[in-house]
Amino acid sequence: MLGIVKAKGAVLYDEDGKEYVDGISSWYTCMYGHCNDFIIERVYAQMQKLDQVVFSGFTHEPAVALSEALMQVLPANQERLFFSDNGSTATEIGIKMALQYHHNRGKKRSVLLAFEDGFHGDTFGAMSVSGLSVYNGPFEDYFIDVKRIPVPTNENIDSIIDQLINDIDLDTIAGFIYEPLIQGAAAMKMHDAVGLEKILALVKSKGVLAIADEVMTGFGKTGKHFASDYLEVKPDIICMSKALTAGLVPMAITSCTQEVYDAFYSDEIAKGLFHGHTYTANPLACTAALAGLELLVSDEIQENITRIIQWHQDFDAEIKDHPKVSATRQTGIIYALDLNVQMERYGNLRDRLFQHFMDSGVFLRPLGNTIYISAPYVTTKAQMDKIYTSIKAVLEFL
Ligand SMILES: *Cc1c(COP(=O)(O)O)cnc(C)c1O
Question: Atom 6, ligand 1: which residue's CA is nearest?
Fold first, then answer.
């Protein structure tokens, strides 16, 4: 275990003073840089005014201001927001919304649809819809019933549509949860919008609610504010966390359409969505999120995003034909490459790569034979070059 004592911008500092470029934005959170002065000042001011209050029967200015600002950047069909406190609960709430939406309308739909190899978090509903893995083995007996389909490609999309029409009873499906365009935990596996669009159009026409898990993809990483912005067919529900609060404190929001909301709006108490966490809509978290949103839409950050996209493209042109590289892919500021290594030669590959990166002052977390970059928008060219150089060194020693 390495002690990290300080962070600023795109850089982490360990207890010996050694610096590391944070190539994955501490799990895609601190996109505007660590300890961002603008965000800190705003949160500090808020701290002196109102730190925490129950978000039940009460409301507060940071939550209202954040809601208004978030509505400006969310896909236009999103009209209602439900606050909670981390990515797993954001998806858990999305799942509960979908199940109860049908229940409230007097229809029993108890199955969920999800992509193979997805990751949606570590609570029970979220585990249920995530790809099957050894980590979740002990709990599988308690999972919600889930049907899984592969992520779409040009080759398999027709067979997926066929499967959805002939093998899966869509009338039993409450919701389809998916990571739009990029499956983060599945080593930044990317799929294009065309196939996803076809799946969404079909399932939505059968009354299935589309739940976009944008916990990783949200807030600019794909080159647009949300990955769903690349699609014509919009989700009914969107799950957000991670970069929502710019890496300062945890918080999450699950948004939905007016139509979903209306299924819960009733004088009958049992129709309400009863899900509340103690720190729901914490004022400091809301303040950090609002400051982050202001940065996201600023010319400066948008220009940074455009610049990083170009740097990655240039880097890709340089390395994609290298014999040690078997595949590369990019969506927005997320770049991934697969190393051309035989399975049997894996051994401790991941550990060796990680150590190499750390030794060269770069924090990257390879997944299997995949190396990916998702550095903060404020990363300088020199810092990004340090990442590129350390990756190129891998191609030489591998
Ligand atoms: C990280 C992540 C989650 C879970 O978020 P936590 O805050 O870690 O609970 C859910 N979905 C996706 C796509 C994620 O990347």
Answer: 87
